[in-house]
Design brief:
This protein is α+β, with helices and mostly antiparallel strands. Helix content is about 30%, strand content about 20%.
Length: about 190
């Protein structure tokens, strides 16, 4: 399980919308749709108010909860909104707004979850954005098959080359290196192969 630290939670009171495709003039110039530009400006403004820190340049997790206006035909209760806009378009719009306001680049978003619901009666349609930093991958996250050879390696005190040790334990040198890194075996116990 990834450990995270929440750095931003922002509620934007607006109808969830996706990023529209860029438009072209008759002369071939590309421009953003006016509605998309207005949405992006509003979301960016709200993000700047909610986040006052330096731009982040590390892997982050983005959680988006989009609450659309409830149709009159739906009774009360929790309903997923399986209607437009698409989740990926909502994510594109939010990601582009995060770039330059909270993140150095939206490519830093490593994990994304987008959920679309219908808001309860009387609730304002909104988009809730939560951004969390991800712990950098470390050796503890790896899940390796455990067998007796690893325990022999952990108990092994004699200093020898990596090749000699891998032959003695019946492991490939590459697997040995992965095992050493995974279980943080002190390198002092293993002499560098020459």
């Amino acid at each position: 399980m990834k450990s995270t630290r929440r750095i931003l939670h922002c509620i934007i009171p607006m109808e969830p919308a996706g990023k529209e495709e860029a438009r072209r003039t008759r002369h071939g110039q590309v421009y953003k749709a006016p509605k998309t530009r207005a949405r992006m400006n509003e979301i960016s403004r709200q993000l700047l108010v909610a986040y006052q820190g330096p731009l982040l340049d590390e892997p982050v997790k983005l959680d988006i909860l989009a609450f659309r206006t409830r149709p009159k035909a739906l009774t009360s209760g929790v309903f997923y909104a399986a209607v437009k806009p698409d989740c990926d378009n909502i994510c594109k719009l939010i990601g582009d707004c995060l770039q330059g306001t909270v993140l150095v680049n939206d490519s830093r978003i490593a994990v994304v979850t987008v959920e679309k619901y219908f808001a309860e009666r009387g609730e304002t349609p909104r988009v809730e954005i939560t951004l969390s930093t991800l712990r950098k991958p470390s050796q503890e996250w790896r899940i390796e098959p455990v067998d007796d050879r690893i325990f022999k390696l952990l108990d092994f005190k004699e200093s020898m080359s990596l090749h000699e040790l891998s032959v003695k334990l019946g492991m490939k040198p590459k697997d040995m290196l992965n095992t050493i890194r995974t279980f943080k075996i002190p390198y002092e116990t293993i002499k560098a192969a020459s």
